[in-house]
Every structure is written in C-alpha cells, then in structure tokens.
Amino acid sequence: MGRALRRSGLRCEGVNIFLADGEAAFQEVFHFHLHVFPRFVGDAFRIEANWGTRDRSLLDREAEAVHSGLAALGFPEMETGGRSEPLT
C-alpha cells in the first residue's frame, strides 16, 4: 500500500494504516474497515494516545501471546527483526 501511494503522484512521504476491529476500538461499520492515511512532513496529522514507555518484559510477553494466537490460526513463524528504511 505504501509503495503504491508513493508511486501514485499524490504527496506521500509515509503512510499510517488504521484498522478498527470491534466496538471497543471505535469501529462503527462492522465489516473489514481500514483507514489509510498518506503522510508528509509537516502535515500536522496526529493520533492522540498515551505514548509512555512500557516495560520490555511486558512487551515481550504480549508479543509472545500474539505470536501464539497467530500460530493457532495457522500462520507461519515470523521474523522478529524490523526494517530501518521504508519500502519504496
């Protein structure tokens, strides 16, 4: 999606993707509902949240729970490394 937006001719230097799944996540239309926000430096778009730092051991336990949930659905084991540069 990000690569397509960057190549579209729209002003897009980055992308935020937001999925609302369930009423507690502010979903109002109860089907697959995905918001894609093309972003650029200085666009003033903000998502307000508590961005505080969380304990690493808690994050690791939660990540393992998510991996277990994915495995239960038949998803293959995933790499845990991240990219330092966006795909272009």
From TrEMBL:
<dbReference type="InterPro" id="IPR019808">
    <property type="entry name" value="Histidine_triad_CS"/>
</dbReference>
<dbReference type="Pfam" id="PF01230">
    <property type="entry name" value="HIT"/>
</dbReference>
<dbReference type="GO" id="GO:0003824">
    <property type="term" value="F:catalytic activity"/>
</dbReference>
<feature type="domain" description="HIT">
    <location>
        <begin position="1"/>
        <end position="46"/>
    </location>
</feature>
<protein>
    <submittedName>
        <fullName>Histidine triad (HIT) family protein</fullName>
    </submittedName>
</protein>
<dbReference type="InterPro" id="IPR036265">
    <property type="entry name" value="HIT-like_sf"/>
</dbReference>
<dbReference type="InterPro" id="IPR011146">
    <property type="entry name" value="HIT-like"/>
</dbReference>
<feature type="short sequence motif" description="Histidine triad motif">
    <location>
        <begin position="31"/>
        <end position="35"/>
    </location>
</feature>
